[in-house]
Amino acid sequence: MFFIRSLSSKIFQKNRNVCNALTNNNKRFLRKISLCGQYDFDLLVIGGGSGGLACAKEASSFGKQVVVLDFVIPSEKGTTWGIGGTCVNVGCIPKKLMHQASLLGESIHEARSYGWNIPEPVTFNWESLVEAVQNHIKSVNWVTRVQLRDKKIEYVNGHGVFEDAHTVIAKMKNGKERRITAKDILIAVGGRPRYPEFPGCKEYCITSDDLFSLPTAPGNTLVIGAGYIGLECAGFLKGLGYEATVMVRSMLLRGFDRDMVNLVQAEMEDKGVKFLIGKIPSKVSKQPNGKLLVEWEGDENGQGEFDTVLVAVGRKALSEELNPSAAGLEIHPESGKFITVAEQTNIPNIYAVGDVLHGRPELTPVAIQAGKLLAGRLYNGIQDQMDYDNVATTIFSPLEYGCVGLTEEEAINRYTEDKIEVYHAYYKPTEFFIPQKNVKHCYLKVITLLEAPQKVLGMHFIGPQAGEVIQGYAAAIKAGLTFQHLKDTVGIHPTISEEFTRVGITKRSGDDPTPQSCCS
Q1: Which of 312, 333, 354 finishes a domain?
Q2: Do 244 and 289 have their domain in common?
Q3: Which GO molecular function entries does the Swiss-Prot or TrEMBL record give (predicted)?
Q4: Does the annotation count 441 as an active-site position?
């Protein structure tokens, strides 16, 4: 009898240990069942870029079960990257680092004027810059993965496609698939560079997806496209010592203030960047010497040889790749993007943020803010909506251009020319004097309503550190900045930002906006 009781006790203990092990191993699964009900997760995010990650982390902080799907389809040249999206890997971050490298090269030469003995020759190594940039990007990728783990957000390296409004199939690189369900789904897949249709484009051209990890120096580069990506790349390439030419179909920086754009172009031309205006590429072919022969059409047909051809003619939203019709999603017929109200698509439980939204600014901070606010509304009871008006931005051209609010053209169209006032001024940065740098393109503009108290509608600035300058004024415009506020503000001297507190000449007056001295 004792033997039987002892054996029964051992069997019971063994079974209890097995049950405990099963319970521990499935603890997260059981928690999901209890919290998510009939779905695997509360929130499924398709896209591991800035907007998607911001929403995922915010939702997790409210106790929600979150999964993030992220997969990079290789570029035509085979370039891929890690989690973090365009901004971290092939956008804002590497662009700003290469822009900084270009500015440092200029500063080295200017240093001689300030008494520094700089030995000749000053040389630059493209491979070293690319290695440093890529090492930084990989560190950010790693930190992002660690953050997801710490916040208990599941990460799936798979390409997500819809099966229905609550189900997404994650297609892995190894061919396997995983079916995932969620109560809410966020689309945050962004976009990729668009290739124009002409022979040799995909075979021989690169895009911004490839430039920042290019293993060899780009050499003489043709940039096709004159949006902010094209101009920024042409600017830093020239600053790093490579010939750069920009091919423009019609106008530079469409949608930006024309006075400012003309000055950006003039400054870039003074720096040695060439422009082919009114030209459209018709063919790219590789020559026996390894060069790329580009043929173009326009007011005058022509051709030229280049080492690298960079295509920057806009971006295509990755909406169709999601099989949106399976979930009943509707996309705009022209832009291919989702039309949303408060980031909600036509399917109530499916949302979108970032560059896949029709008619919204394609800017990383916009996606981040929208993602955070969306999570707060869905899971924390807040009512705050994303405000897409008066979003500041900066073009990191050789002489930077920062702006917030309306352009002069937009202000005229909205209020008529008789009801607005445009204050403007050229200025002289103090640090430009000793090296005798060109100051003729350092310019600012303040656009206001004519009627008191002259609400500020837009602010535009070309000069060093334009992004740093305009950011503070963006907050002021959000708070209801008037021209009187600017007049009442005492500037910090000598700074370039103080010029906004000193501007007083209007376009309407016809007076010369050029200062006579640094303190005039």
Answers
A1: 312
A2: yes
A3: flavin adenine dinucleotide binding; glutathione-disulfide reductase (NADPH) activity; thioredoxin-disulfide reductase (NADPH) activity
A4: no
307/352 Cα distance (integer angstroms): 39
Residue 406 backbone zone (phi > 0: left; psi -120 to 50: alpha; other: beta)? beta
User: Can you give the CATH number for the domain in which 153 is found?
Assistant: 3.50.50.60
Q: Write out the two tokens for 468.
A: 């740093």
Q: Could you list the beta-strand ranges (E) of 266-407.
A: 274-277, 279-286, 292-298, 302-306, 308-311, 315-317, 350-352, 393-395, 401-405
Cα gap 471→443, rounded to integer Å: 17
425 with 463, same domain: the answer is yes
Q: Report the domain count for the chain.
A: 3
SS3 assignment, position 410: helix
Q: Does the annotation place 467 within a ligand binding site? A: no
Quick check: pTM over 0.70? yes
Radius of gyration, CA atoms only, the chain: 27
For residue 243, how many C-alpha atoms fall within 13 Å in the half-sphere facing its CB?
12
pLDDT in tens, 228-275: 999 999 999 999 999 999 999 999 999 999 999 999 999 999 999 999
Decide which of 15 and 152 is more confident.
Answer: 152
The predicted-structure confidence for 238-248, as pLDDT tens digits, reads as follows: 999 999 999 99
**29's tokens:** 């699964």
Q: Which of 159, 460, 485, 493 is catalytic?
A: 493
Is 160 labelled a binding residue?
yes
Same domain, 159 and 300: no
Confidence (pLDDT) at 515: 86
Tell whether 225 is in a known binding site: yes
Residue 407 lies in a domain: yes
Residue 35 marked as a ligand binder = no
Same domain, 175 and 228: no
Residue 118 labelled as part of a binding site: no
Q: pLDDT tens across 53-91, in order? A: 999 999 999 999 999 999 999 999 999 999 999 999 999
Domain residues for 76?
Answer: 41-84+132-193+316-380
